[in-house]
Fold this protein.
Amino acid sequence: MTRKSKVGANRQDDSTPDHLVWRKVVENVRPLQQETALPPAPVVITSPTLPPSPPPLPLPVAEKSTKPRLSALSHGDVQPLDKRTGKKFKDGRLPIEARLDLHGMGEARACEALRRFIQDAHASGLRCVLVVTGKGRQSEGGFGIIRTRTPDWLNGADLRPLILSFSHARPKDGGAGALYILLKRHRS
């Protein structure tokens, strides 16, 4: 009895069609040459009528802000409020001092109207306002882009510092198609 060596036992015969094709593919393959030369220096064109430009100034170093970064708000987040005020706010029992209806506006127009409204309301010292976004049932896809985007706009860098909280309105004020927004007190 002769033992077969395991060396080469899994090796295919050199005459198989795949092996012949592979040999044909790699017969002209050569290694790539390493480029050791540096890339050419950029050409600087100067005009004889203009003085040479001064060297570029270093970029200013951004100073660290002393203000803490505000976290994003979500519907019904009343953490910054005391328990009693938070409950009254979410239940719609705070007096609504101004209203904005965004129905029928395009996205850009609605965003700008919301920004102006919140900034004006805050500057006027108003505390609780109502923004009607609509539910968007008539919209393409069955959801309203204004309703969807409003929380993002309220969390934007220009509006977030003015807002304490926002929450879906009670059905009598528009339900899921409206938001109560509680503004921070205006500091002069």
Summary: The first helix runs from residue 17 to 26. Residues 115 and 158 are 8 Å apart (CA to CA). Residues 103-183 form a domain with the Ribosomal Protein S8; Chain: A, domain 1 fold (CATH 3.30.1370.110). The two ends are 103 Å apart (CA to CA).
